[in-house]
Structure formats: C-alpha cells, structure tokens
Amino acid sequence: MVVPSSIGGSRVLLRKLREIMGTDEEAQVRLDRLVAMVASTMVADVCSIYLTRGAVHELFATQGLAPGAVHRTRLKEGEGLVGLVAETKQPLNIADAQHHERFAYRPETGEEPFNSFLGVPIVRSERVFGVLVVQNRVQRVYGEEEVEALQTIAMVLAEMVASGAFGDLSGLADVEARASRPESMQGRAFSDGIAIGTVVLHEPHAPLGRVIADDPVKEETRLDDALAQVRGALNDMLEGDPGRISGVSRDVLETFIMLASDPSWEQKLKHGVRAGLSADAAVERVRGEHRAKFNATRDQYLRERLHDFEDLDNRLLRALAGVDAGARTLPEDAILVARELGPAELLDYGERLKGVALEEGANTAHAAIVARALGIPMVGSLSRLLSRVEDGDPLVLDGESGEVRLRPEPQVITSYQERLSLRTARAAEFARLRHIPPVTQDGERMTLLLNAGLALDVHHLDDTGAEGIGLFRTEFQFMVSETLPRLESQTLLYRDVLEAAGSRPVTFRTLDLGSDKVLPYVAAEREENPALGWRAVRIGLDRPGLLRYQLRALIGAAAGRRLRVMFPLVTTVAEFDAARALLDREVAWKRDRGGKLPTLIEVGVMVEAPALAWSIPDLKGRADFISIGTNDLMQYFFAADRGNQRVSERYDILSAPALRFLKRIRDDADAAGLQVSICGEAAGRPLEAIAFAALGFRRLSMPASGIGPVKRLILSMDAREAATAMARMLRSDGPTIRPELTEFARIRGYAL
C-alpha cells in the first residue's frame, strides 16, 4: 500500500485530488483520471465508481474492469456488495468477495479474477450518492489507512455529485416521484400526546463547501474559533433564563456540555485539518465515524451517546458556515421530522414544536427525556421516515400508540381532532378528581402512588393528586453522569425529592443497574443473557462500596424525616438480609458520629423474582413492606423477554395463572404482616386495576398518566362484586381473561 499513514502523505493525496477536480475537463474525463490515480496510489488492480441514479447504482468509471461495462452495469437497490455498502452506509472490507452471500456476478465487467474488495459509501448528509470500490486479485484485508484514504476521496466525490458536477442523476424511469399518497407508519411512543401539524425537516447541516484546505494553519484557527463558539453557546443556553431550562432538561444539558469538552473529539478534528482537509470536511469525516460506530454497536447507552456527538458535529458545521439554527422560522403547527435528534438541538426549538417524529431514536435517549420534560409528543423508530416525507407535508403524530399518519385524509384529521378534544376534556375531568379520595362504591379505600425517576417527576404529585411516590428510581442520576456522582450530589437530589414531596411518602429504590442500564464509567462485560445476569442488588452486594455510598446519601438526605428504602431484584432472603445489614451499618456509622438520623426507617424489597415470591413468609420480621414489580416478575414468570416484540405481547398478566400467582403473594404478605403494593405500567391501566383490586390489593404505584384514569375507574367500581366475579374467572384455562373482564366491567358500568 502506497497510501502513507503520515499527515504529509494525506496532504499529497488531497493535492492530487484537487489537481484532477480543479480542471475544466468534462466530468467523465475527471472521473476516469480519478479512478486511475486511486488504483495507482493504492496499488489496486481495480478502482470503480458507482453513482446512484434513481433506484439503481450505475458504474460511472473504472480502472481495471472491462471499459464496456461503464454506464451499462447497473445494480438494483440492495443488490450485490455495492448495494450492501449503500444500504448500510458503512465500509465493506473483505478478502474473498466472490464467496460473500451478497456477491452479484455481472459477466460484462470481467471481475472474475479479483478476490479482495473494499467499498466505501459516497454519502453526504445521510444521503447516499454512490459507492467507491477498490479490488485486488490477491486475497487480502485492506488496512485502516487505506480505508481512511478511500473515505476521503468519497467525501470529495459526494460534494461534487451534490453540486451537480455529473449532471442530474435522478432521471431513470424507475425513480419514484415525490410521495403524495396517505401513509401510515408504526413506530414507538417516546413522549405522550397527540399532534396535528406540518412537517418541518430538521436540517442540522450547512453546505460543506471546500473539502481540501489551502492553508492548514488557517483552517485550524477556524476550527478553534468554531469550537469556542459552540461551547460558548451551550453555556449561554444553560446559564440563560433559569425558568426555561430546569430539572431534567438542565441535567441532560450539563452532561451534553461535558461531551463538547471531550479532548479526544477535538483531537480527531484537528488531525483531519492537519492532514489537509478543510475544517468543515474534518468535522464531516468525524461525523461519519460516529455514524459508522452507531450502526455497528448494539449497546444502547453507547448508541445514545453517539447521537449526542452527532449533535455536536452538526453544531460545529453550522458554526463554521455561519448558520444560526435557532433563528429558523417555523409554522405555528410545526412537527419536526429527523433521523435522530440531540438534546440541545431539541432545546434549540423548544416549545415552538407541536411534536417530533424520528426515524431512529430510543425511549431512554436524552432527547426523548427532554421531550417528556417539555411535554412535546414524540414518536421514534419510524423506519425510512425521511425517504417518505417532504417539508410542508401534513402529518398526524400519535404519542399514545406510536403511530404516524403522513399526508392524512380529511376524515383521519377530523378523527384525531376529536381525540384531542377528548384528551382535553379527560384532562379537565381528571383535574376535578384530583383531590377526591379513591374509594370504591362499596367503601374500599385505595391508595394511588406515583412512579418517578427524576426530581422533575415529583411535581406530578400535585398535578395528579397522587398520595406519594411508590417507586423513585435512583439510577438515572448515575446514567447521565460521566463519573460516579459524589456523595454531596446524591444527597442533594434525594433531599430535593423529599422536600418536593412534603408530608407524602417517598419510596427510594436503590440502584437497579445492569441489563440495559450501563454506566459510562464502569467497565461492563457483555453477558449472554443480561436480564438474568449481574444486575440490581447483585451488583450492590458484590460492590458494597457503591451501595453503601448511596445508602449513606439517602440517610443524610432524610435526616429528621421518614425514609423508605427498597432493594431491587432480590432473589433470596439471604440477599435481603445482606443488603439490610449494609443499611444498618450505615445507620450505625451516622449515629456514632453524632449525625442526625431519619425519624423512621422502613425497609422493603421488590418482588421481581419468582424465587422470592415463594419466600414471602420468611420475610416476616425482616422487611417492613414489599412491592411487586410486575414488569420483571411477569417477564420471569412467562419466560418471555419484555423487550422482544415477538414474545412480549404473547403473554398476558390478565391470565388466570398470573393472577393466581399474584393472589398467592398478596395472601402470604397479609399473613406475614407486610404492607404490599403493585408497581409497574400495569397498575396504571384501568382494566388491570380492576383485577388487582378484586384480588385484594389496595396500593397501586404507576406512571403519572395512569393516576386519573385509574382513580375514575375506582370511583365507579364495586370491589366486592369484582372479587366475586374474579373468583369465577380465576378458574379459566384460557390464555387470558381480558375479554371476560372487559365485558363484566361494561355491563356493570365501570369507567374504563
């Protein structure tokens, strides 16, 4: 390989490129010279350029394949190795191309003798313009320097294609015209709500402009100035109007600003500039690396962090081009459509948005968390959304079901307008019920509690009329921080939560880490089955310093107050005893130093493992309360991964075996004198709430959105008649009693 890894060698390559592309020769001549230069420089037997024309990838130039194949060889979308590179938008580097499952033989090319294959996408702003390929007879895997060199050339080609240097490439007959028909897309709901409005395409890029630098020193100065501008703007956003960015939005933005100061990110950018790229092109190349890593990783936390880096790359490109994204004029009913969105980008738009639709994304991503905090409906995981929608299209976004309607028919818009009116009316009704105690028609008093994970969530206590927090998830503070939160930081958060709750009880769950919750500062081994692996209290007991540190913060925060602590995913009574011993040790540590203690400490356990569910009698005298975590308990009960869509909907908590299991736990808890509650998404659904009340449960802890509907249901139901009906339904041998329970509630006039 002649392409050197040194910065000087990269500049030579870029100078050759500039010489070829800077001539007045016809486009085809320049392409022919380019493939010849690349083949010579990389000691490759073949170099070919395929450009995407309509829905096919057409061979536009080659050195090494049969000349007659140029403009004759066309691969359909997704066909062959070229189609695979275009589809994945990632380099493909293999030693034996002809035995790859996606290899497509075209006899007119004469490529039989060539074994090794390196293809890189010609891509700009997520749009694929073609594929650049080198091949050799000898079987070999190309080195990192060779891949990087080819990507640099592809970047130059992308800018030329985008500028129209090779003419209009959309003229083939099979090119799809602009979409105009109504379409329905199913994604995932990330933030609740309904929005009816007009599509505004998120445009994070400014035009790239020059790719090759005339003066590397000047380009590095431009880069330094742009970095300072981006960091300054983010700090201004954080330190501006304190009422605009607070709570979780502030926490996320602080984490984001830490990424903007990452020295490794800056070093990669400067390496590109010193190699001869313009500052803009260096940012674009690093952005491409982030995108490739995003596509390659299955780790959810890493994927979300890479999205944040892409946000920073986009901001830097705009700063270099002098584009102010915040000044963009939006229609009053704007629904933002994007492939992905960073948290600061969403804050740029703020409350000007009616909704957000994302092609990718995750429910736990920073942007989704900020959307929920701002009350902006968001739907994500909408495959190929950007290829099916245009700026200005009408769109309906359903943050309840995860459905998006593109260019909807008038009757669909009317239907959703009616749903919006109903949601408004229901919200008003639930507000009127806020201060009414949840008592059934036959006088059974229920207690409705809130699930929370952020200090911001505690304000829902006043909004919903919930009587306390039945579950406060403490891990979010650890997940958004780049380092282990200090004792003072943890103590301050827990104290803020207790003060916001006032006299209402708060149950803190200790760290439930592991599985899909990974800390950036803790090395995690990939497990064969993480849901059954090293997680939750197992980590706390194996790393007692981490758990004791958190318990010390909780004790300090609750000084002079009531403290309720529970441990997650306890499987045996011995595990509970060991965890409680750590708590007792921290209480003694505080007492011995004359510190102020909580007035009352209640210790409980999450019942999420079937093994513990059959050990409830042994908790008598050890624990003060139990909370049944329906999400995990049902996952283990049915042996069905709740994150796997193929099986998660296959089993129903409203089945006779599952309900008999829950009744057994409640009976054992009553006999052991343990307070018991149901906790999870299921507790916030009215039909499930009927079943739980009929089984004798009187404490339900749920998301804020469930408090109003469940309270309305409770006020309309008769607990004794529901229990009688439930006793009959529990004898069912069917997969679910949902239809029977629904019909019973309808006949009795229960408010579902």
Blueprint (SSEs and pairs):
Layout: H1 7-21, H2 27-41, E1 46-53, E2 56-63, E3 74-76, H3 80-88, E4 92-94, E5 116-124, E6 127-136, H4 144-162, E7 183-186, E8 188-191, E9 194-201, H5 216-239, H6 247-260, H7 263-274, H8 279-296, H9 300-321, E10 334-338, H10 343-349, E11 355-358, H11 366-374, E12 378-380, E13 394-398, E14 403-406, H12 410-432, E15 447-452, H13 460-464, E16 469-473, H14 476-479, H15 487-501, E17 506-509, H16 537-542, H17 544-557, E18 562-567, H18 573-592, E19 600-607, H19 610-613, E20 625-629, H20 630-638, H21 645-648, H22 656-672, E21 675-679, H23 686-694, E22 699-702, H24 704-716, H25 719-729, H26 738-748
Parallel strand pairs: 9-10, 10-11, 11-12, 15-16, 15-22, 16-17, 17-18, 18-19, 19-20, 20-21, 21-22
Antiparallel strand pairs: 1-2, 1-6, 2-3, 4-5, 5-6, 7-14, 8-12, 9-13, 13-14
Nearest-integer average pLDDT: 83
Strand fraction band? 15-25%
Report the span from N to C terminus: 70 Å
**Would you identify the regions where 5 or more consecutive residues have pLDDT less than 50?**
1-6, 171-178, 242-248
The CATH class label of the largest domain is Alpha Beta
| CATH topology name of the largest domain | Glucose Oxidase, domain 1
| Number of distinct beta strands | 22
Q: What is the CATH superfamily label of the largest domain?
A: Phosphohistidine domain
- How many helices? The count is 26
Shape field: elongated
- Please summarize the sheet with the most strands: 8 strands, mixed
